[in-house]
Amino acid sequence: MAQKNILKYIILGLLNHKELAGYDLKKLFEGEVGDFWSSNHSQIYPELRRMEEKGLITSHSKTVGTKLEKKYYRITPAGQEILSAWMHEPLSSLVPSRDEFTMKLYLIDDPRDPLLAQLFREEIARHQKKYDYLRSRWEALFRTQEDRLKHFGHSLILEQAIERERQRLQWLVDTKRNMIQ
After folding, report:
1. Within 10 A of 73 (CB to CB), how many other CB atoms are there?
2. Contact 56, 76 (CB under 8 A)
3. What is the distance between the alpha carbons of residues 10 and 4, in angstroms, rounded to a whole number?
4. How far apart (Å, rounded) are the C-alpha atoms in residues 181 and 171?
5. Whole-number percent of the chain with pLDDT over 70
């Protein structure tokens, strides 16, 4: 079955919050949206063109500073209808993740393989870094209950991501400790 183009719906949802330039969208995917959905400019800008051609969004240009011309996008009523329909659809099936650590671990047959300790050290470091980053995002964005209520969905997914990383780290540390004993 062909995979649905979710990027279109994400962009529509972001534009439903406020008017954004392509650069603003790119920065969101590099920051807070990128914590749970990846996309790069080579996907974003062509999608914006397609969506504009289909009448889901419109654009206008503004001069920023003295010379820089930026193209800003906003959602149309047709785009809002498409977004609403997608938001009410059942979730798609889970797709397999592409987890290099898990694949390497799967391929190790000997519990005494010296590569195991190295893999676990690297994976613990990666997840600790991600956990620390997510905690700092929480502190920056959701210090108060008012902040959490203002961006409720975002606070929930960030909270879930922090918990996922905490659990993953705990499993990694416990498993590494048990392998050494």
Report:
1. 24
2. yes
3. 12
4. 16
5. 98
**pLDDT at residue 5 in the model:** 83
Q: Please give the structure tokens belonging to residue 109.
A: 């047959």
Q: Write down how long the chain is.
A: 181
Torsion of CA 113, 115, 117, 119, to 10 degrees: -140
For 49-59, b/e burial (b = at least 16 CB within 10 A) is: eebbeeebbeb
Whether the pLDDT of residue 121 is over 50: the answer is yes
HEC readout, 37-92: CCCCHHHHHHHHHHHHHCCCEEEEEEEECCCEEEEEEEECHHHHHHHHHHHHCCCC
- Beta strands 57-64 and 20-21 are unpaired
* CA nearest to 9, candidates 103, 127, 91, 110: 91
Which tokens go with 32? Answer: 């807070």
